[in-house]
């Protein structure tokens, strides 16, 4: 009887701790499918929620006859899944999207920047009208105060024949270039720190070659000066700050990129390595910085390849749940309130999910 009583006390204590968030449980975080959004005719490279969470933007590259390509952006009602508006860009593929902090402007970035004379577009979200075309390419991002727009330049070539991009820091209102930064190699991602003081770039030199290597570089966003280079790996993909500013995370590894590394944002120390069974394409933090949600999938071209949507606990680096899907997950976004998750899939659809946390 005494042992049974002690066991009951222990179970009660465990339950209380779990309810208070003291113990992580795989059952405490779940996803349920909400909407399947159709209308794109190619892979979805860039779903993003507006700052108020009311609109979801998705971008893709639409293939037309005679091998011509054009980009297409769709604006969806995030609550109902209704298509609100389609924005057509007949000059560019759409690889990167970013809302301004006030939600009035949407920036889009061209896929590769080979001919990026008009590779960045600024759109009026309310009317769907094009406000301005700028030189440059993917990636695109706004500073937290909305005053600065950071983009890649067109692809340039060194004297030795290697490709690279510059980083263009622009006045978000006029498009005027304030600074031209010179990272090492071709850009993979740009992200501002939550306070806007630091711009972090990831890039790769000798892409696909025998001497390929990755870089993470920190720049002073006010002066354009390089502060330091943090990582030197074979590949460093997209990097993201956690909303609480304590963490940074990036896709790293060799050709197939099966891992996400989570760093201490202040020291650069690797805290967790989140290993995947398939290639990782995208990830996002939840607003409370407790979870990281990643999308992964196979690598076989022109064939249906399975993927998964994965939930990770950031306190431990443990995989909580993996949701298998019939196609790979190219991109992941989380709504500002943390209640919704959007995924761009290899079957040319966008799926939205409700995230339940208890």
Write the layout of secondary structure elements.
Layout: H1 2-19, E1 29-37, E2 48-49, E3 55-63, E4 69-77, E5 83-89, E6 96-99, E7 105-109, E8 120-124, E9 130-134, E10 137-142, E11 148-152, E12 156-157, E13 163-164, E14 167-171, E15 177-181, E16 186-192, E17 198-205, E18 213-220, E19 226-233, E20 236-241, E21 247-252, E22 259-264, E23 270-275, E24 279-285, E25 291-297, E26 307-313, E27 318-325, E28 329-334, E29 340-345, E30 350-357
Antiparallel strand pairs: 1-30, 2-3, 3-4, 4-5, 6-7, 7-8, 8-9, 10-11, 11-14, 12-13, 14-15, 16-17, 17-18, 18-19, 20-21, 21-22, 22-23, 24-25, 25-26, 26-27, 28-29, 29-30
What does this structure look like?
- It is a single chain.
- This protein is mostly beta strands.
- The chain has 2 domains: 136 residues, YVTN repeat-like/Quinoprotein amine dehydrogenase (Methylamine Dehydrogenase, Chain H, 7 Propeller), CATH 2.130.10.10; 143 residues, Methylamine Dehydrogenase, Chain H, CATH 2.130.10.10.
- 5% of the residues lie in helices and 51% in strands.
- The chain is built from 1 helix and 30 strands.
- The strands form 8 sheets. Strands 1-30-29-28 form a 4-stranded antiparallel beta sheet, with no helix packed on it. A 4-stranded antiparallel beta sheet has the order 2-3-4-5, with no helix packed on it. A 4-stranded antiparallel beta sheet has the order 6-7-8-9, with no helix packed on it.
- The protein is globular.
- The N terminus is likely disordered.
Task: Summarize this entry quickly.
By secondary structure, the protein is mainly beta.
């Amino acid at each position: 009887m005494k042992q049974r009583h002690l066991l009951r006390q222990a179970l009660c204590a465990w339950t209380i701790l779990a309810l208070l968030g003291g113990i992580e449980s795989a059952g405490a975080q779940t996803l349920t499918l909400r909407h399947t959004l159709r209308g794109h005719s190619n892979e979805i490279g860039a779903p993003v929620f507006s700052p108020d969470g009311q609109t979801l933007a998705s971008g893709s590259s639409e293939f037309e006859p005679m091998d011509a390509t054009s980009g297409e952006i769709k604006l969806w009602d995030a609550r109902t899944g209704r298509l609100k508006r389609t924005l057509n860009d007949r000059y560019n593929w759409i690889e990167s999207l970013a809302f301004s902090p006030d939600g009035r402007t949407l920036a889009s970035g061209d896929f590769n920047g080979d001919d990026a004379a008009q590779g960045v577009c600024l759109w009026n979200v309310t009317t769907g009208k094009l406000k301005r075309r700028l030189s440059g390419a993917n990636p695109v991002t706004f500073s937290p105060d909305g005053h600065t727009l950071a983009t890649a330049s067109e692809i340039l070539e060194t004297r030795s024949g290697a490709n690279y991009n510059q980083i263009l820091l622009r006045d978000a209102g006029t498009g005027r270039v304030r600074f031209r930064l010179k990272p090492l190699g071709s850009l993979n991602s740009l992200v501002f720190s939550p306070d806007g003081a630091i711009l972090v770039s990831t890039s790769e030199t000798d892409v696909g070659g025998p001497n390929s290597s990755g870089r993470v570089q920190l720049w002073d966003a006010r002066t354009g000066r390089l502060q330091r280079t943090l990582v030197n790996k074979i590949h460093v993909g997209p990097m993201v700050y956690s909303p609480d500013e304590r963490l940074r995370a990036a896709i790293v590894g060799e050709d197939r990129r099966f891992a996400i590394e989570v760093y201490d944002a202040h020291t650069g120390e690797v805290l967790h390595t989140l290993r995947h069974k398939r290639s990782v394409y995208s990830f996002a933090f939840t607003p409370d910085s407790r979870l990281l949600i990643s999308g992964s999938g196979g690598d076989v071209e022109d064939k249906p390849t399975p993927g998964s949507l994965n939930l990770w606990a950031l306190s431990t680096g443990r995989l909580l749940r993996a949701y298998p899907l019939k196609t790979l997950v190219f991109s992941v976004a989380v709504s500002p309130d943390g209640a919704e998750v959007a995924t761009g899939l290899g079957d040319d659809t966008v799926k939205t999910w409700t995230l339940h946390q208890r």
